[in-house]
Amino acid sequence: MSAVVRPRLLTRLDRTERVAVVRAATGYGRTTLVEQWADTLRAAGHLVAWTAGPWDRDDPWSVVRDALTVELRAQGVDVVDAASPQALAAAVDAADAPVLLVLDDADELDDPDAVTAVAALIAASPALRVLLVTGPRYPLLPSGPQHPVLTAAGRALPLVALNARDLSFTAEELRAAAASWGHPLDDARLEYLVTLVGGWARLARVVLDDTRPDDDQLATASAYAFARDVIVPSVGDADLLRVAMLVATASDPTPETVRVALGTAGIEASGDVPVDMLLRLEAVGVLVRDPEVGSATVPSRWRTPALLQEVLRRELERRDPELAVTVHRTLCRAALRAHPPDPRRAVEHAARARDWTLLETCWLDFGTYLVATGGPGVDAVYAAVPDEVATTSSVLAMARATARRNREEPSDARELVLGLMAQLGRLALDGAWRSRTAAGRWTGAAAALVAARAQGDMRRAMTIVRDTEVAAARAGARGGTVGRSYWWFLVQAGRTALLEGDLGAALEMPMRAYELADPYRAPDVRAAAAGHVALVHSLDGMLVDAQRWLVRHAEALDPEWEDIVRDSAADVAQALVATGRLELAAADAALSQVHMDARAPDVTWPFVMRARVRRAVLFGDPEGGLAQLEQIERTRHAWLDQAGTVRRDMLRMRAELLLALGEYHRVADLLTETDVLGAWSDVPRARWHLLTGDPHAALRAAVVGGRRRRVNLADRIDLLVLEAWAAHEVKQAALATRAFRTARRLADEQGALRSFAHLPPAVRDTLCELSGLRFDDDELARLSTIGRVVPDPARLVPLTPRERTVLMMLDEHDTTRDVADALTVSVNTVRKQVLSIYAKLGVHDREAALRRAHELGILTPQEPLR
């Protein structure tokens, strides 16, 4: 079969004292190896008698006796005709050279008389060495390969045993053998060949001989037929072959999967039985062990060569199709329940069983992960879902669409799944969602949430949240609430509640998801839930609680899943915590992990924008922050019109950026024209009053805002700091000291410094002096990293509404007459108003007035949020 000589095996055979057994299934090169060893012995002066089957003759013993007789007589040893075993043994012992008897095809030597005679010969001649070349017909005992001849010997003999594991070609030996057959292999083709055939030399030869030089892929048809027609029958032992088929069906042959497969078939597999079975199959060549795995602490790993695995699987499906389906179903469920789970393996088994309900379950539990890591095999399974099945399951329809799109244009897994959920969620909104499993309803509810959010219909989204929670309470565990679909729905519901401003639900539901989710089956759900809770706490200013949940988020992450299904909520929370503590490097590191895509399925973009605005205001880039904000506003995202919380948050961010830029007139318009009593405006309103020279109004705004029932901790600290500043400006030292001390106490509990960055340094130093609460060196170092957070104070230009209108018209028209015509008033009236405008702006002509008005923010482009 191969000209490759393997000294490692010949050396082991050289240790043979009495008996050696070379045992493997057909095609492992066992006879070729023995021929090479026999040649080396002949060259060294040994006598070698070679016998082989078929043994179906009238007297198999005579074949053995005659072969030995010929060799002994050729060396001048006197041997009587038809010698008895004892006489033949005496002749062997009288020879001057060592004698080796090779019994090839020894598993076919089962004639009782012949077996007894050969055993008697071995027992009677200490000088005779015997080598049995056998297939897997006879069982492997703990003491080694067993054969009737060895049993008949009646006593233990010194034994050297080589099995398929020993005979298996290494990759480099296979490369050398292929070259000797005229098939040189590069590394990639060699690796694929090893995957197909393991170290099975004959199978490798058939594959390579059948592959033409210009073929892109190795040809396997002939090798498949050889494995089916020759190798499988050569196993011989019916029980062993049945086990081999079940183990091949298990795909990943571990003791646990073997126990499951054998147990499903009614074969006792307790204790060490699965490992014993694996060792038996490895010994005959059905399994290959990974040479890099297996030690006292790391369990061994086996695999069935891919080509043989397919043959054995199909053989089981042909012989017992019902058992094959049952085994695949059982293994699929076991793969989903495993710790950690193996969703790709589960999909493979569900597909082999053609069990669409199980295939839907795999997607419900691990859809995003499968999109990202399933690979072509998983994509092929879901892409092939028939139309008649897809109509019964919206989940499988989504999986099929995802798989087909993923093959054509691979993209971000989470984005792809959310995009399709938004599309299919419309079915759920219309009551047309279909599912084959109880858990499918929760995926339908999550899809409906995504679709409702995409339309900006937050009221409908919150109705879905409430209705689904009622349904879940009624359904209980049997309704699928112990599965991943429901856990993920809880996270999505928490995100929806956060957008709607229901902070109680925004915390409660993801915290419940974190507690319920299995850390092995759903590490990404637990991580996403923890990240979301951290985000809510960070938005509230509860930085210690946010940090605690960020630790839980990190603990929940599975390294294999982290980069695949990464959820940005934790990164945004980390950025908000870092900006709250004025830690620029940490903020930048967290923000570098997220991207902001203001599209419907992306729930986190408003909070990403919040983190970026805080960073821009604190560290000196308000122009860049405002540009990003206006870019988002130009998208006219549905949430800006219909989700009140998002719209108010965008207004708050705009006000903060304009204040940092000193655009006080534009802030005035924002505060006047939008929700005068809204809580979102308390902090920017108080700060605006201070910067425009009205500390009394600032004090009133800060006190009123701080007394609101639901003011969060971050705003409460901001308002206390502004109250202290305003009280200082109006000479109320006691009030300033009390407010500053309260702010310091609350902020120190969280490690927060952001609010104090908005104080003018001189005011900050004075308040520290009055309160006796100075910042330590570390806090001062962090405060020194901020940019120009507090702009120069300025007075507002007291233009009347009519004067502002005239000023706007001057910006749009070339002459005073044009303005008068547009306003349908006299030119003299317009001239009087223009002169008044010039006086208030401190200018003397139209161009200077317009330039000054733009500098002060009195004239601005039309703003999207007005």
The span between the termini is 85 Å
* Spatial strand order of the main sheet: 2-3-4-1-7
Strand proportion = under 5%
Return the structural class. Answer: mainly alpha
Structural topology:
Elements: H1 7-13, E1 19-23, H2 30-43, E2 47-51, H3 60-74, H4 85-94, E3 99-103, H5 112-124, E4 128-134, E5 140-141, E6 144-145, H6 148-152, E7 159-163, H7 164-167, H8 171-180, H9 187-197, H10 201-210, H11 221-234, H12 238-249, H13 255-264, H14 273-284, E8 288-289, E9 302-303, H15 306-319, H16 321-337, H17 343-353, H18 356-373, H19 375-383, H20 387-390, H21 394-408, H22 413-429, H23 440-454, H24 458-475, H25 484-500, H26 503-516, H27 523-540, H28 543-556, H29 559-562, H30 569-580, H31 584-591, H32 605-618, H33 622-634, H34 638-642, H35 644-660, H36 664-673, H37 682-691, H38 695-706, H39 713-729, H40 733-750, H41 761-771, H42 777-783, H43 801-812, H44 816-823, H45 827-841, H46 846-856
Parallel strand pairs: 1-4, 1-7, 2-3, 3-4
Antiparallel strand pairs: 5-6, 8-9
